[in-house]
Design goal:
Layout (H helix, E strand, L loop, with lengths): L1 H19 L8 H7 L4 E11 L2 E12 L5 E5 L16 E8 L3 H4 L14 E2 L7 E5 L2 E3 L12 E3 H9 L7 E6 L1 E2 L3 E2 L4 E2 L2 H4 L30 E11 L6 E10 L4 E4 L19 E2 L3 E3 L7 E8 L2 E5 L4 E2 L12 E4 L13 E3 L5 E3 L12 H10 L19 H10 L11
Parallel strand pairs: 3-5, 9-21, 10-23
Antiparallel strand pairs: 1-2, 1-4, 2-3, 4-5, 4-6, 6-7, 7-8, 9-17, 11-12, 13-14, 13-18, 14-15, 15-16, 18-19, 18-20, 22-23
Bound molecules: calcium ion (2 copies).
Length: 417
């Protein structure tokens, strides 16, 4: 009888094991999180054992819901489809799912009924556990991170994580000057909107005519030298009517355009994000739909200046897997020959070329419609106004003078709305 009981138990065990561990086992981290999107990706240390789980102290929050600094991560009890976990000195990067409480009912070795709402578990159906050491992220033996890579520098890993299926972005560093903000006394742009607390936290380009597909990028702590938001599009080189990718950025007083982390993490339509802190990227704008080493027209738009388009398609360099972060530079300030069309910019006192101010209705032309918007808005103060062409927060005669200087300008066809 004893022999029969044991056999019976083993049959049940085997059945449950098969049921629990029917899963797709991706050998790479990016494939794993694409197939089975985690609720949380964190860097940290398993500081103490806790039954069949660990207390996990979070050092960095990469993606997902907000949590306390220390969370419960539950592992296997001997029969579940989870990793075994135990405390160690290793710094780990874990892609975690909300706990399914299975360890409470099949708690063969653990603390029974201890898995609670808000706890997490570590799936074994793929690569959900990575190692971090001296700034490098590594996959465990026999596993991969992404694109055949066994190791990535941590900042690059974080970038790669943003793209669909960890597709690495191309990074574009643009330089441009806005005529309206240029100051002859300093030979750089002023930052009056930022200084006056008048810049919106969210870009203005998610409305007509731009209709930027906002990812709700939100910047609460603007870099101190920010002039204004700008909007950049990449166009297909064979058909400029096709917008391949787009991003919003922050123009700095020296002309460099910083990228904003756009939280483009929606692995599936039902994914609910809690936004983490803003990340402003001084390297430039990140694009996830554009492909490295392919050419695109670059379009730079500003809410009340006439936008510009690169004269030719520009090749965007490949984002390296390991090593220094690389980006493509494109400098609109160096001359009229950087842009499509004639007389699309004006030379400033310091020899740099600037986008032309005065397009209040953003149609790519400076016409009487812009003047009408100026008159309707005249005398407004301390705000973020379309006819505030010199970007100091008020609508005055100085703005009108900029309009008059540029009236009649018509932008290149990709900036005409
Ligand atoms: Ca206009
Ligand atoms: Ca003004």
């Amino acid at each position: 009888m004893r022999f029969i009981s044991i056999s019976f138990f083993l049959i049940i065990l085997t059945t449950q094991l098969n049921f629990a561990c029917t899963c797709i086992d991706n050998a790479d981290f990016c494939g794993s999180i694409a197939n089975n999107p985690p609720d949380l990706i964190v860097k940290g240390v398993a500081i103490a054992n806790n039954g069949h789980g660990v207390k996990f102290a979070i050092l960095d929050h990469l993606i997902g819901v907000e949590t306390p600094d220390t969370i419960n991560v539950w592992g296997d009890t001997g029969i579940l489809c989870r990793h075994y976990v135990s405390a160690s000195a290793d710094t780990l990067i874990l892609a975690l799912h909300y706990v399914d409480y299975m360890g409470n009912t099949i708690g063969l070795s653990g603390t029974v009924n201890s898995e609670r709402a808000g706890d997490f578990m570590l799936s074994v159906c793929g690569t959900f556990k990575l190692f971090y050491e001296n700034g490098i992220v590594k996959a465990p033996s026999g596993r991969k991170l992404t694109y055949g890579s066994q190791a990535l520098q941590y900042p690059i890993f974080k970038d790669v994580l943003q793209g669909p299926r960890c597709k690495p972005p191309v990074v574009l560093s643009l330089k441009a000057v806005l005529e309206g903000a240029y100051k002859t006394t300093t030979d750089i742009m002023h930052t009056n909107l930022k200084d006056g607390g008048l810049l919106p936290e969210i870009s203005p380009y998610d409305q007509t005519p731009w209709n930027y597909l906002s990812q709700q990028e939100k910047v609460i702590d603007m870099p101190y030298n920010t002039v204004d938001w700008v909007y950049v599009k990449l166009l297909d080189k064979n058909d400029p009517n096709i917008v391949v990718d787009e991003a919003v950025g922050l123009l700095q007083d020296n002309g460099l355009i910083y990228g904003v982390d756009d939280k483009r993490n929606n692995w599936n339509a039902n994914y609910n994000w809690t936004y983490l802190d803003d990340i402003v990227d001084s390297r430039g704008l990140r694009f996830y739909n554009a492909n490295p080493n392919e050419e695109y027209y670059i379009v730079l738009l500003h809410r009340n200046h006439v936008g510009v388009v690169s004269k030719d398609p520009v090749s965007l360099v490949r984002f390296p897997q390991v090593g220094a972060t690389q980006h493509t530079d494109y400098d609109f300030t160096i001359g009229l020959n950087t842009v499509m069309g004639n007389n699309q910019m004006r030379e400033m006192q310091n020899g740099e070329y600037a986008l032309l101010a005065g397009d209040a209705n953003n149609d790519g032309r400076i016409t009487i419609h812009d003047m009408n918007i100026f008159y309707l808005g005249a005398s407004q103060i301390n705000g973020y106004y379309a006819p505030d062409f010199n970007l100091e927060g008020n609508v005055t005669i100085h703005d009108f003078n900029l309009y008059i200087k540029n009236a009649g300008t018509i932008g290149a066809s990709p900036v005409i709305y």
